[in-house]
Amino acid sequence: MPAQAAGASAEANLQSAVSAAASFRVDHGTYAGMTTNDLRSYDRAIASGVSVRNTGARGYCIESTVAGATVSITGPNGTFVARRC
């Protein structure tokens, strides 16, 4: 898979994860303690390359790796960046 396509796929995977993280926050009042499995409890289709790396009361960092391309987001109001958390 070309690097550009892999990066685009990683970003698409993160979009689902960000939505699930928002749902987690609504239910728990915090992002602290949120895990990748928690995200999958909200959306079972979240790709296997997605992982929660850091969490705190007000934010998180989630990354997605596809074919060697890693994209991450520091949320809740971050943007997708081509690097690890």
List the keywords.
3-stranded antiparallel β-sheet; alpha+beta; 85 residues; 39% helix; globular
Figure out the total of helices: 2
Helix content: 25-40%
The residue ranges in which pLDDT falls below 50 over 5 or more consecutive positions are none
Structural class by sheet pairing and helices: alpha+beta
* Gyration radius, rounded: 12 Å
**What is the N-to-C order of secondary-structure elements (H for helix, E for strand)?**
HHEEE
Query: How much is the average pLDDT?
Result: 93
Q: How far apart lie the N and C ends?
A: 23 Å
Specify the overall morphology: globular
Q: How many runs of DSSP E, i.e. beta strands?
A: 3
Major sheet details: 3 strands, antiparallel
Strand order of the largest sheet: 1-2-3
Strand content bin: 15-25%
